[in-house]
Amino acid sequence: MVKSTIIARVADGLPLAASMDDEQIESELAGYKSQAKAIFKKLNTQSEPRCSIESGPYYLHYLLDQGVCFLCICDKAFPRKAAFSYLDELVREFNMSYGEEAHKASLRPYAFMKFDTFIQKTKRIFEDSRTQQNLSKLNEDLRDVTQIMTKNMEDLLWRGDSLDRMNTLSDNLRHHSEKYRKDTWKLNLEFLYRKYGIPAAILLGFLFVLYLRYKLF
Predict the structure, then answer these.
(1) Which residues in 131-148 are b (16+ Cβ under 10 Å) and which e?
(2) Rounded to an integer, what distance in angstroms lies between the CA atom of residue 161 and that of residue 145?
(3) For burial by CB atoms within 10 Å, which of 3, 104, 177, 212 has the most?
(4) What is the pLDDT of residue 159?
(5) What's the rounded Cα separation, in Å, for the pair 156 and 203?
(6) How far is Cα 2 from Cα 58, in angstroms, rounded to an integer?
(7) What stretches of 43-166 show up as alpha helix (H) in DSSP?
(8) Is the dihedral of CA 93, 95, 96, 101 positive or negative?
């Protein structure tokens, strides 16, 4: 199930809204909410737009949209497709309700706490087992989660791992791929020369001699 939800601005990590959790959940998730704040500090415009971060018995799923991060803390057993469908619903409603207001410099932390009403309503819908069953039956209508990056919280916080897109790696792979293609082409030419070069030279020489013979005589 979805345990807690936090919405923050990507540019400066300013919390915009969050779910009003009961005391038990608040106590249980205190450390994980601190991890969520650490994630907000690492985010930038080049970060992965969707990511799942494993931490203990939970996953912290986040979605970036129009400079705002929508993050939920879920039990590991909660389907990832359901988690991101839940976040998609929050994105649509938040953008319709607040839009450009979220980027005002004068905003104070948790300026949109009224959004918790929609968060709680949507969370109850997604906690319904029938809803989860319907989601599993409608996989073709849901975003493919196989392309969503999965990280480990230990790697992220303690080993300095990055949430950025792997542009550099992709560029390197393209470079090496192009180099490999050129090297392969050269090797193929060299192979063909070794295999057919001498017979081809003899044949060309013979044809040239024939040409001169009939040309001169």
Answers:
(1) ebeebeeeeeebeebeeb
(2) 21
(3) 3
(4) 57
(5) 66
(6) 10
(7) 80-97, 116-127, 129-137, 153-158
(8) positive
